[in-house]
Amino acid sequence: MKKISKKQLRVIKDWVKFALAILCVIFFVVYFIFNLWSPLKEDAYMIVKPGTSVSSVTNYMLKNNIIKSGDLFYFSIQMNGGKIMAGEYEIPRGAGVWTIASMLANGRIATTVVTIPEGFTIKQTKNLLMNITTLTGEVDCDKQIPICNLRDGDIFPDTYRIARGMSRLAVLELAHKKMQEVKNSFEGVVYPTPLKDWNDVMVLASIVQKETPLKREMPIVAGVYLNRLNTNMRLQACPTVIYALTDFEGNMHGESLLSEHLKIDSPYNTYIHKGLPPYPIANVGVDAIRAVLNPSKTDYLFFVADGRGGHKFSKTYDEHQKYHEKWREIKKNLNK
Q1: Better pLDDT: 67 or 248
Q2: Could you tell me whether strands 159-163 and 302-305 are parallel, antiparallel, or unpaired per DSSP bridges?
């Protein structure tokens, strides 16, 4: 075999370097055309309805200056499977045809975040959903449809990342299914005396949820109410009265709860009726449910706000009255 000279070797190396340079240029040109070559100066929103053809989507994007080349987009779609998925898309500014094609082919639709706070009632949740402009539709419908007959305690308060444009009823359905999953996760758990069924658990959990936002206090509050139930005392829970006063909304909107309000004739008024209200007064999180199922074992029968976001607990009414006087002084000073 003829030996390659040093001069020939240099020539080969130069050609290899040249070829690699050409390949790099081609790569960057292709990358630029498919990923960086974009007319989009700001984010764009686009709705693709079920059954919409690739050509219709291509024409729409050309008309609205979302892409520069229909041929490149069509090629990109074919390389991503040849199909597009229906949905609402948020296309970021500067997105090239390959990025857009990949989004549409893989259904990477625009999303929005909906947070249902713990302790919200159904009415409050529906008002919340109606104020989220990225959702669609109404929150009320034919009562023959199960999702239209929701009671408090039927949905799970949580943060949901959902498709932009989702219907409000679909969000309620999602939260309802999540609540069913939570319920199933507690299947087989022994209920503390005198609670008889899941509804009792949820009723007491909703009262606990409304009484305190502090996770560490929830088992103690639950224990107080269970002690009252087991000694045939009235629960005398203010949130139940507020629920009745506000037509099941659960929000006084800054108004004070007065002594005359405690006389309202309602099965939810635990100041005049013994035992639990008929149904939950709010939608609850897992911490409140766990607190009811695992209450603190104490002799406490009373509690009152301590002015620092928590409560003072007591075993006797006299001790409770002393803490109540301190709370009145705190409120008085706050209102000065």
Answers
A1: 248
A2: unpaired
Is 70 exceeded by the pLDDT of residue 200? yes
pLDDT digits (tens, 9 = 90+) for 150-186: 999 999 999 999 998 899 999 999 999 999 999 999 9
On whether residue 13 sits in a domain, the answer given is no
Is 17 inside a domain boundary? Answer: no
Residues 142 and 210 in one domain: no
CATH number at residue 97: 3.30.1490.480
**235-255 in b/e burial notation, b at 16+ Cβ within 10 A?**
bebbbbbbbbbbebbbeeeee
Structure tokens that stand for 100 in this block: 């857009």
State whether 59 and 117 are in the same domain.
Answer: no
Residues 264 and 246 in one domain: yes
What φ, ψ does residue 327 adopt, rounded to 5°? -65, -40
Three-state DSSP at 11 gives helix
- The rounded radius of gyration (Å) of the Cα atoms in the chain is 31
Residues 76 and 133 in one domain: no
Burial 131-142 (b: 16+ CB within 10 A, else e): eeeebeeebeee
The pLDDT score that the predictor gives to residue 145 is 77
Residues 202 and 282 in one domain: yes
| pLDDT digit string, tens, across residues 90-125 | 888 888 888 888 889 888 888 899 999 999 999 999
Cis peptide before 194 (omega within 30 of 0): yes
- Give residue-wise pLDDT tens across range 21-40: 566 655 444 444 455 556 88
**Max Cα distance, the chain (Å):** 112
161 lies in which domain range?
A: 111-185
* Total domains in the fold of the chain: 3
Averaged pLDDT, 216-230:
98
In order of 94, 104, 118, 254, the CA distances from 99 in angstroms are: 10, 9, 38, 50
- First CA to last CA distance, the chain: 105
Interatomic CA distance for residues 190 and 196, integer angstroms = 10
136 and 231 belong to one structural domain: no
